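Morning!

This is the sequence you dropped in the shared folder:
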Amino acid sequence: MTSFAFLLLVIGLEKWQLNEFAITPGNATNVPALISVKGLGTDPRADHIYLVDVYLQQLSALQYLTFHLQSHVQFIPGQDLVEPGVPTSELTAQGYQQMVDSKTAAEVAALRSLGWTVPGHPDGAVLTQVLSGSPADPAKLAVEDRIVSVSTTPKAGHSIATPNACTLEAVIHQLPPHHRLLLTVVHQSFTSSGVLVLGPRRQVSLETVAPPSGLGPSACPGVTGPQGSFLGVGLEDAVRYDFPGQVNVNTSSIGGPSAGLAMTLSIIDALSKGSLTGGHLIATTGTIDAQGRVGEVGGVAEKTIAVERAGAQYFFVPAGEASIARAEATKGLHVIGVASLGEVLGYLRGIGGAVPVPISPPTKP
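The structure's back. Tokens below.
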């Protein structure tokens, strides 16, 4: 093969995009340095609490070949990253959506652990995915759009203000196909670096279709029996919380939910007295919800490599994935499996961390 032909082959392989993705070790980022707070007292001294991420990259044919020569690479087909019928082009928006949800849950969990009552209020239903070719697709609905009201034809007689995910699903479930819905939608989208942008409110009219075969049962309580109509979207509840102050975590260009535990601990550290970690350098991965429950994530093996490179002494991971991290960790890294924020705080006290005492006394509503 001539050098010219070889060059053309390399160029061709580089341009040939595959439906194959690679997960590789990412960075360890010190979260307390990313936090800013308004309206609440903060401790100027900050601990070292690292979030760890991974790189998720769609591969060209050339990269697919070269990545197989590297260590610490996990290959995942594109169809395993999304639900059937959902295009992989939604992955970036879904990752940023998960990060926004994670930030909110982290702030709620942190403040509640410090003694605040943080009430939440229903605020509509948010789209988490839009299936290609579904009624929602040509209507230009997109990930993160928030549905704040829905009504059907007068004959069907449904009108719901500020629905949640399950009330909206229940309406669609019981309607026969080819019913027209009128949705009031607040358009929400993300910049290229993951900043949430609030757009205009608009009316969207669309017609449901018959559900495709193979749909599983609904996860919503009381939504049973054969499904009548299909819209082609994934939904989650939108909740608006009453916060006592304003906390911002600058996670530019980082997506996914796995930084939830790290952000929660960092917010607690910022708002409380003393060293939460006892001066130790710690790293975490794990989702968090508003109740302080820690959930499983992906790429734990690759994240452990990133933690080792950062020189952390303790690595908190979801309990069900601790064995994966331990298989990659060296003897100098302590891997601790946890299922809740309370377990993490208890362990930190055992290695010299302070009991969190908020600088601003919590107020009751």
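Headline: The radius of gyration is 23 Å.

More detail when I'm at my desk.
O.
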